[in-house]
Design brief:
Number of helices: 5
Strand content: under 5%
Helix content: over 70%
Shape: flat
Structural class: mainly alpha
Oligomer: single chain
Order of helices and strands: HHHEEHH
Length: 98
């Protein structure tokens, strides 16, 4: 167990060291900046997608999917964020109650 923990810690440290060691001129490239700005959005969307349609190891279609659909529609209509969240929560609760 300890070798795995120490190996994981060393790998994390090496990855952070590699990130700090990247030359500044590479990071000033507009393509790199554009991709770096979009990565958090893509990762968050992937996380939300996985949490919405999976339950452990299986795909699940339930009330969460209805809530996400309403949230996407509300976001597409450019409603305020609080309205998007409340609409998604209410939809999920109503579908679960039915």
């Amino acid at each position: 167990m300890w070798p795995a923990i120490l190996g994981g810690a060393a790998a994390c440290y090496a990855l952070k060291l590699a990130g700090v060691s990247v030359p500044g001129r590479w990071l000033s490239d507009p393509r790199v900046q554009r991709v770096a700005g979009l990565l958090p959005v893509a990762l968050l969307a992937a996380l939300i997608g996985l949490q919405t349609i999976t339950d452990g190891k299986a795909l699940v279609v339930d009330a969460r999917l209805a809530g996400i659909a309403v949230a996407v529609a509300a976001q597409w209509r450019r409603l305020p964020f609080l309205v998007v969240v409340v609409a998604a929560c209410a939809t999920t609760a109503i579908v679960r109650a039915l």
